[in-house]
Amino acid sequence: MTPDDAKQKLITAGLILEGAGQGDMTRGHVSVRVPGDPSRFYMKPHSFGFDEITMDNIVTCDMDGKKVEGWAPRHSEIFIHTEIYKARPDITSIIHSHPDHAVAVSATGRPLRMLSQPSAAFADGVGYYKDTIDLIRREDQGAGVAKAFGTHKAAFLKNHGVVVGGVTLEEAVILTIMLENACRIQILAESAGDLAPEFPREDILELYNKLSRPEQHTVNFNYLARRARRQK
Ligand SMILES: [Zn+2]
Asked: pLDDT tens digits for 29-63?
């Protein structure tokens, strides 16, 4: 993949995320490592919506959180990205957003339960960052988020939002949407009353393996990309 390919995919990811209600008035952000240079990453600029990323306004940042290229401002919460990238060389893309249902579940302090198919994509667990409701504007706070994120693909930031990491940008986008769907269903199910027993762990893990296949993420991402362009 060329640097321009990665930037184009970041633009597409932004359209999909905005269409999925992940924007929160420009406050969400998405990044992807620069192809061939894992010590730098492209990121959506501050003050723009997910659906306003362009080849011109993308910013390039390093692992200290410094902007090394681009005229647009960078997000103050960049340390969520730098600290997870440093801790997890396997991850090439990170998304942080404030989706309603995930924030609501995070406010309960309860874990994500295996109540739906999208929840099974997180059968390996979801991290829980509980230190502050505030913006993650310092490196030590980012390190705290990275610690809570651990070996997972996602973490709740209690009363604040979610952070999702992907081996690919496609995976990060699809898991961000699936996490919000899983949280919405959990709230509905728990509101409905007493729940029947969950399926056995081995059933959940079988579905987890199916949902974790990279081609699943690509198929879903490409569909959402076509839909986003039709609606633009
Ligand atoms: Zn935030």
From this structure: 999 999 999 999 999 999 999 999 999 999 999 99
Output Rg (C-alpha) for the chain, integer angstroms. 17
- What's the confidence (pLDDT) of residue 231? 85
pLDDT digits (tens, 9 = 90+) for 192-213: 999 999 999 999 999 999 999 9
> Whole-angstrom Cα distance, residue 3 to residue 95?
19
Residue 29 Cα to ligand 1 midpoint, Å, equals 8
How far away, in angstroms, is 133 Cα from ligand 1 center? 9
The per-residue pLDDT for range 96-107, each reduced to its tens digit, is 999 999 999 999
3-state secondary structure 103-169: HHHHHHCCCCCCCCHHHHCCCCCCEEECCCCCCCCCHHHHHHHHHHHCCCCEEEECCCEEEEEECCH
Whose CA is closest to 157, among 115, 229, 103? 103
CB atoms within 5 A of ion ligand 1 belong to 161
Q: 159 CA distance to ligand 1 centroid (A)?
A: 10
Q: Mean pLDDT, the chain, as a whole number?
A: 96
Give distance in angstroms: CA of 204 to centre of ligand 1: 30
Closest CA to 169 of 39, 19, 33, 18: 33
User: Which residue ranges form the domains of the chain, and what is each CATH number?
Assistant: 3-227 (3.40.225.10)
